[in-house]
Amino acid sequence: MGRKIVGIVGSYRKDGIIDSAVTNALEGARANGAETVKIYLTEKNIEFCNNCRTCTQQPGDKRGSCVYDDDMEDILRQIDEADGYVLGSPVNFGTVTAITKRFMERLVVYAYWPWGKITVPKLRNAAQNKKALVITSATPPGWMGRIIMPGVVKQLKTTAKVIGAKRIKCLYFGMTPKNPDSTLNDKYLHKAFEAGKYLGSN
Ligand SMILES: Cc1cc2nc3c(=O)[nH]c(=O)nc-3n(C[C@H](O)[C@H](O)[C@H](O)COP(=O)(O)O)c2cc1C
Q1: Secondary structure (3-state) at 190
Q2: Which residues line ligand 1 (CB under 6 A)?
Q3: Which residue among 11, 28, 52, 60 is least crowded, i.e. fewest CB within 10 A of its CB?
Q4: In this structure, is the dihedral angle defined by the CA atoms of residues 158, 162, 163 and 167, taken in order, positive or negative?
Q5: Any idea what DSSP says for residue 3?
Q6: How far is the CA of 90 from the centre of ligand 1 (A)?
Q7: Of 43, 138, 154, 35, nearest to 104 (Cα)?
Q8: Whether 18 contacts 137, CB under 8 Å
Q9: pLDDT tens digit sequence for 63-110
Q10: Which residue from 22, 91, 96 has its CB within 8 A of the most atoms of ligand 1, so it is best to mutate?
């Protein structure tokens, strides 16, 4: 069986920049033998993390149980079963989209962080060696965006690490919003496809 790659779309626009980039990256992974799943966060019922930290109290590598019964459990199951990830969010107000942040906070189940005992959360997935491709898009040219708005790349890389990725590549697409129907040009689509191939191999 091929490697399983899960793509997570943290954009609000279907067929927009991030969605197209994730689609093409997953196509690249499939071209290299992987099976892929795409998750649109906008289609999921994801409660806000309420900081109760019930999920962080038990030691061990197994993720903690969340007090909420919503779509996050199924997303977490797919994350656990995956060998690699594509994580995408545009830069909105210098950070990931609100829906991506909502998803990220719920990943605290992957931390062991008992009350009063340790100050820094210990990652339960530290021994894993998965791959990830993180993708963002913004208004200035990509090279400039990387310098003046590095936040989203940092946030998505942290997210990838929390879910067990160590080998992480990044794509930063710039000058994207040109009109209401802006999508990625062929050059960038090809770039996303080629980058996705990396996830299909061991
Ligand atoms: C609410 C909002 C905030 C944004 N903030 C930024 C920003 O801080 N910096 C930037 O370069 N672009 C910003 N943009 C532009 C988006 O990053 C850009 O349109 C994005 O690439 C669109 O991706 P999508 O097609 O997947 O939605 C913002 C757009 C919106 C709607």
Answers
A1: helix
A2: 11-13, 16-19, 90-94, 137-140, 149, 176-177
A3: 60
A4: positive
A5: P
A6: 6
A7: 154
A8: yes
A9: 999 999 999 999 999 999 999 999 999 999 999 999 999 999 999 999
A10: 91
Q: What is the pLDDT of residues 139-191, one digit of tens each?
A: 999 999 999 999 999 999 999 999 999 999 999 999 876 777 777 889 999 99
**CB-CB contact of 125 with 61 (8 Å):** yes
The angle subtended at Cα 89 by Cα 33 and Cα 195, nearest 5°, is: 30
Alpha helices in 32-127 (DSSP H): 72-81, 98-105
Domain residue spans of the chain: 4-200
Tokens of 145: 């965006």
Whether residue 5 contacts residue 36, with contact meaning beta carbons closer than 8 Å, is answered with: yes
What is the full DSSP assignment across 103-168? HHHGGGGGEE--TTT-SSPEETTTT--EEEEEEEE-SS-HHHHHHH--HHHHHHHHHHHHTTEEEE
Cα atoms in the 13 Å half-sphere on the side-chain side of 188: 24
Residues 100, 121: Cα–Cα separation, whole Å: 20
Largest CA distance in the chain: 52
